[in-house]
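Submission checklist for the structure archive. All mandatory fields must be present; incomplete records are returned to the submitter.

[x] Identifier: Olfactomedin-like domain-containing protein
[x] Organism: Solea senegalensis
[x] Residue count: 329
[x] Sequence attached
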Amino acid sequence: MESLQPLIPVLEQYKTDTKLIAQFKEEIRNLSGVLMSIQEEMGAFDYEELQQRVLSLENRLRNCMNKLTCGKLMKITGPTTVKTSGTRFGAWMTDPQASLKNNRVWYMDSYTNNKIVKEFKSIADFVAGVESRTYNLPFKWAGTNHVVYNGSLYYNKMQSNIVVRYSFETGRVVTQRALESAGFHNVYPYTWGGFSDIDLMADELGLWAVYATNQNAGNIVISQLNPDTLQVLNTWNTEYSKRNAGESFMICGTLYITNSHLTGAKVYYAYSTKTSSYEYTDIPFHNQYFHMSMLDYNARDRSLYGWNNGHQVLFNVTLFHIIKTDDDS
């Protein structure tokens, strides 16, 4: 009995281990059952059926998005600093007309004496500095108010009021056209100067040019452009001085103008091309790095791209939407 006494704890341990093994077996049986049911569920659809279900869901989502009509700007939040690079002045952008899988970024440093455009395959590559391609434009640009729209770069040719359309696909200028009577070369720039006389931008409704003329007393003129030919489709004259505007951007056919490019700037004025009317607004935004030389809206991302004193930043926008119902005409 004395020699068997030390074996009692060992037997107790075996007894405990046996219980654990039994529990493990039960859990494995349960897990096997769950896996079997998942396998049976997945096996009910082949690849083509699953693909059709995904496409159907995407169409339903798109239909829901289409019921969101163009909205009115209510709030600007951020910014998020994406990268710190380049000089104090420049532009960076993505194509609002590109597919969701296409996230190429274009980067144009400085506001003058440059014609090198850098391309990155994605935001991640842009942050990492991994260039996919470089374009050497035939003409130098003026200002920082360029835009990429449906695969083409639109920019103001240096020391002129000529708008250039450059195709990234062909690497050539497709067309160029002068904006009649538009001031250029710091005649009617934004408050920060930098040959920002002609601002090209895009929104949900198409391609736009914002500039000023002597005929409109140096006040801002808005023109909608044909993206293919650069012909002016329609023009609106505002009563807001171009030289008193910090930056501007279009959302759903309404031009929003900031009152400064420095700290404390806010969206102060809005002009609707739909109603040919304006209103004064009070929408602040955080000018984190004190000097804004580019601020452009991207309709696909529903965000503002900014060049903030050598920092590439993103702002979120909040729009007030009207939901269309099937009963609406």
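[x] Structure attached
Curator remark: DSSP finds three helices and 20 strands in the chain. The chain has a mean pLDDT of 89.
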